[in-house]
Design goal:
With about 575 residues, the protein is α/β, with parallel strands linked by helices. It folds into three domains: about 1-185 and about 390-495, Rossmann fold (3-Layer(aba) Sandwich); about 215-380, no CATH class; about 510-575, no CATH class. The chain is built from 20 helices and 23 strands. A seven-stranded mixed beta sheet has the order 14-13-20-21-7-22-23, sandwiched between helices. It has a five-stranded mixed beta sheet with strand order 2-1-8-9-12, with helices on one face. The longest helix has 20 residues, at about 255-270.
Amino acid sequence: MELIYAWIGKFRNIEHQNFNFSNQYNIDYNEIANEITATAIDGGDALKNENGVLTFIEDDQHYLKNFFHTKISNISALIGKNSSGKSNVIDFILTAISKGNRGKLASNYILVFKKDNQPFFFGKTKNNSLENSSLSSLGVEMGKINPDDEWESMFYTNVADNKDYIFEDSSVHDFSFKALNKLQSNKIKFVSSSLFNRTWAKLNPDNQDSKKVRFIFNPIAYTTLENDNPTNEKMLGILKRYRRAIYQASTSNYNRFRYGIAINLLCFLFTNNSNDVSSLLDDIEIVGTEGLAEAIASLNPKVSKFLIEFSDYTNLEELTEIDLKLYQKLLAEIDPNNGYNFGEVEKHINSIIVDFNEDFKRVIHDKTEIFNTQSLISHDWSQLSSGMKAYLNLFSQLFYLADKPVDQAKNLLICIDEGDLYLHPEWQKNFLNDLIDFVTNIFDTGKIQIILTSHSPFLISDLPKENVLLLNESGEPNRQLIGESSFGANIHQLFANQFFLSKGSIGQFAKTKIQTLLKEIPNMIDENVDQYRKKIEMIGEPILRYRLDEVFRKRINELSKVKQIEWHQQQIEKLQQI
């Protein structure tokens, strides 16, 4: 099944707008007549009425059939400037197709799908309910379909705005930025997989050691309690001893990690269940004059034993009984004598950094969900650029979804909002190719449809113009790229398109400076000729530089004879050096 058309009556900044997602058909909705007309993109009717049944006039030779991959029904891109409504279109579609929050869509809307070469309809028309709405074409009432019964749908965004999407808590697999904070283990599982090696090779073809994957563990509960400076003498002494053991004395990342897990969980329990921790505190001694608890060699076994045997699962906020048992399993399996090597020690005030190597994977195997409890623990990846992290985020969530048990007969809709955000231009150039390669290798469902939003002309150059919707500031879509083909277009030509740069193709600061130069050079005096010459030479755009040079030369001929001779001599010397 493929979504080929959406009409939105009213949704945020979008009013009475058509969105054609098919690269084969153009569909238009007549709201008054409550009917659609469908034509082929290259002309001619797209639908026919055969004995009261609507079917598409199939073109087996259509040049974009299976264009991206046999597993992919279509890929569409919504390209627009900020606030044009790209994200709103996706938010609307995912809300409309998924069970849960459709009731929040108050206005009329239409979704048209193609399935088994027939058009199907879902939506609200004439202010009727979903059940009582209808839609016709060629005098025939279209069949209805519930997209949620046909599709698994997924949403992903790189945008760190923590906005609320109205499809949240619906049947959509939600990988919004806010949701990703609770899905940290997905990244760990992906990096532990063989598929990650292929992705890593693309991002890091030279396999530079300086870019190896390192894991940053932040014991949030521990540092939070430290900052609160507890009044309990025993607890304060324990905090001081672990601080010294982890961040000052230890030369082993493995020991730092196991100490960090223990003290972090203890601090979480003390904050939420201080009475239950009292039995442990009674068994701890304070030594010396600095108020430190006993040596870590005797302290950590006592703390670990208490944590492993802890059984009060009440008042633990977001830490579930299942997650607590994972922590306990991890502590029980961490053997101080196994000699695991987690890489070179890096001293940081509140973080423990380890290599994401085979030893580390072995320790956290089947316990990665412990990193999803944000008030207790957080992690990130060290020495990775924002672009690498963006790839890691996206592909780890796709990998997670592919690993879930889903109905193999269902199709998959993947909506990605600003997926190429944070990527270096070289990776933007490879983004669509890498995405297609990845999803077609990991998913065994029915057909896959992808809808993307972006600001990037790199994405446009990878898509036929039939697959691109350009949204202006009012959210109005335009399917044609000024009548020119976008596929395989030169990136510089696309940037020159007025859609992207309506007010010139250089930065505003540089533009202002150049305009100032044009005004100042006619008033140039002998003393600052060299200064203006250097300013002109630093301009990279040759036509602009030539124009400024013309004005400069004209002014030179108006200066003193001495300055004119000096300048001409400099030009002769330059020519002699060529």
